[in-house]
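hey so i finally got around to running the thing on that chain from the lab meeting. sorry it took forever, my laptop kept dying and i had to restart like 3 times. anyway pasting the input first so we r on the same page abt which one it is
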Amino acid sequence: MRRRENGFSLIEVLFAAAILSVALLALASLFPTGYQNIAYGGGMTTAADLGQQKIEVLRHLPFDLAGGCTAPPTDLVCLNTGGVPPGGAPSETETIVPPLVRDGYSFTRRTWLRVQGTSPYRFADITIIVEWVEGQFGTKTLRLDARVAQ
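ok and heres what got predicted. didnt touch it at all, straight out
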C-alpha cells in the first residue's frame, strides 16, 4: 500500500520563505525612493506656484507709467534690467519668508525682466528662477519663462 503524504516538506517551506523574504526586501527598498519623489514633487509644485504668482503680478503691471520711475518700481519699463539669466543681474531677488515658507522649505525667487521693442509694439520677456533646498537632497531649481505683449 502506498502512503500518501499531504502538506509541504521542511525544504519546500524554507525555499518559499527565502523567495518571499527576497521579494519583501526588494519592495521595502522602494519606500525611501518613493518618499524622495514625493518630497521633490511637493517642492516642485510649490516652486511652480510661487513662480506663476510672480508672473501674474508682472503681467498686470503697465508697461510705462507717466512720471518716470519711482521706488519701488511700479511699471515694467522701470523694472527692466535688460539682463537675461544666468549672465545678467536680476531685476528682483526675494527670499520667501514666513508665512510663505511652505512644506518646511525656504524658497528664493529671482526675477529677470527685459523689455524690447518700441511703443506700442513692446513686449517683455520674464524669467523667474525659484530655488529651494530639500534637506539631504540638495538645492533644486525651477525656471519659468513668459512673454507679455503691450
